[in-house]
Amino acid sequence: MTIKCPAKINLSLDVIGKREDGYHLLRMIMQTVSLFDNVTVQKGSEGINIYCNKSSVPCNENNSAYKAAKLILDKFQIKSGVDILIDKEIPVAAGLAGGSTDAAGVIKAMNEIFKLHMTMEDMMEIGLKVGADVPYCIIGGTALAEGIGEKLTVLKQFKETWCVLAKPPISVSTADVYGSLKLDEIVRHPDTEELIDNIEKEEIDILAKGMVNVLETVTIKEYPIILEIKNIMKEFNALGSLMSGSGPTVFGLFRDKAEAEKCYHRLRDYLKEVYLVKTL
Ligand SMILES: C[C@](O)(CO)[C@H](O)COP(=O)(O)OP(=O)(O)OC[C@H]1O[C@@H](n2ccc(N)nc2=O)[C@H](O)[C@@H]1O
Ligand SMILES: Nc1ncnc2c1ncn2[C@@H]1O[C@H](COP(=O)(O)OP(=O)(O)OP(=O)(O)O)[C@@H](O)[C@H]1O
């Protein structure tokens, strides 16, 4: 069975506190986009075997897809193994939930293959053990994520919008970005309620101008290229541009495909990993 696993962007990301275990309390608006990993899962004879077309992705127990499969094999005491082939299109360590979406895909595929009759809630509970973004990746679409990312409220689905994603050639660790965040130094928080209101009214222009990701306070200081990409997108008529998740990928929202294409071509002269996508 092959599952298309979409990337996500964060239309906003606010940090409102910190738990005792170090995890941060968030309010963020999540959105899936049309950039996919194709994950093929099938019954195997023994153990969990991971294959991936990208050498930077670990094909061992550190792979998020492996972790998801292991949790399910153990929970349901399944004797056979699973073979998982990850055809990766989503850039790695990019802030686009590449690993999380693969784990979500494996959970859904194994639910079907082994006829486990898990509900969405059951699957999200297993997903959370793999990572904070996995429960969202199981539902996808437009959603408000709270708690550490696992408390989800489905929102009115975002009007189809053209986006450009651009990843600068730097690697950013999610744990390091959260670790360097100074909560009391955040000056601008997103107005999450207003953003949700604008999603409901399909006021994409107003929404795009109100997008804020507080993690930019950490990453832009260290990597000014993130701000440069945001500015190029604005010069090329993006309605708004923002870093996704813990970065370093920046996305821009555009009025139509033609505008998005112009920006895509400009950024392709400058960066290798640039994608023209739509919200899903
Ligand atoms: C940046 C986002 O992608 C935004 O959607 C997520 O908040 C991160 O989600 P994720 O990569 O699935 O996160 P995990 O794999 O669970 O955690 C990676 C690391 O990020 C930090 N982390 C993550 C989520 C959260 N709410 N607070 C945190 O402080 C923790 O140090 C953790 O060790
Ligand atoms: N299936 C997978 N796909 C990509 N990376 C994986 C996978 N499994 C484990 N990894 C490891 O996880 C690290 C983070 O990769 P990933 O692409 O998930 O980051 P991300 O897009 O920043 O995620 P998030 O937005 O959820 O923080 C990589 O450096 C890689 O070593």
UniProtKB/TrEMBL annotation:
The keyword ATP-binding applies. The active site is at K8, D133. The keyword Zinc does not apply. It catalyses: 4-CDP-2-C-methyl-D-erythritol + ATP = 4-CDP-2-C-methyl-D-erythritol 2-phosphate + ADP + H(+). It is an enzyme of class 2 (transferase). Keywords: ATP-binding, Isoprene biosynthesis, Kinase, Nucleotide-binding, Transferase. Residues 196-272 form the GHMP kinase C-terminal domain. Pathway: Isoprenoid biosynthesis; isopentenyl diphosphate biosynthesis via DXP pathway; isopentenyl diphosphate from 1-deoxy-D-xylulose 5-phosphate: step 3/6. Residues 63-141 form the GHMP kinase N-terminal domain. It comes from the Bacteria. GO terms for molecular function: 4-(cytidine 5'-diphospho)-2-C-methyl-D-erythritol kinase activity; ATP binding. It holds the Pfam family GHMP_kinases_C. ATP binds at P91, V92, A93, A94, G95, L96, A97, G98, G99, S100, T101. One of its GO terms (biological process) is terpenoid biosynthetic process. Its EC number is 2.7.1.148. Belongs to the GHMP kinase family. IspE subfamily. Catalyzes the phosphorylation of the position 2 hydroxy group of 4-diphosphocytidyl-2C-methyl-D-erythritol. This is 4-diphosphocytidyl-2-C-methyl-D-erythritol kinase. The lineage of its organism: Bacteria, Bacillati, Bacillota, Clostridia, Eubacteriales.
